[in-house]
Amino acid sequence: MLSVLVENNSGVLSRIAGLFSRRGYNIDSLSVGVTENPDISRMTITVTGDDYILEQIKKQLNKLINVIKVVELKPEKSVYRELILVKVKAHAEDRTVIKETVNIFRANIVDISPKTLTVEMTGDAGKISAFVDVIKPFGIIELVRTGFTGMQRGGIKITD
Q1: In this predicted model, what pLDDT tens digit does every residue of 113-160 receive, in sequence order?
Q2: Do the Cβ atoms of 86 and 132 come closer than 8 Å?
Q3: Which of 29, 81, 92, 132 has the least C-beta neighbours within 10 A?
């Protein structure tokens, strides 16, 4: 997983996506948002590849003019989360079990209809996968994931 600080300008996302496309690298997930400084955005990019491919991606990203800094987020030295929204079938006889499951996973019900519940949850990959596996038998109608976002643990700031 890479944390990339970029200038908050139009076209930066397109240039970075183009770099991946031209090199034949696949982006597994991508999330982008403005930082505490409105002139800078942070991209969290999840890619699959060995150390050589990851190093090549970092070198190519650092060559782009709008890229300020690239940091690899190692799992043991970073905190990362993903948000999912899941709309699940919720027949009257299943609602109590679904609500208990939601509570166990520290998720939230954000919408209720006569036949469905929509659940919001954040967590790491293992927690999200476990929740989806448990809720799947009830009947997932829709599921959307944000992709991961993350930062280094402790007092280190990416701009240090």
Answers
A1: 999 999 999 999 899 999 999 999 999 999 999 888 888 888 766 665
A2: yes
A3: 92
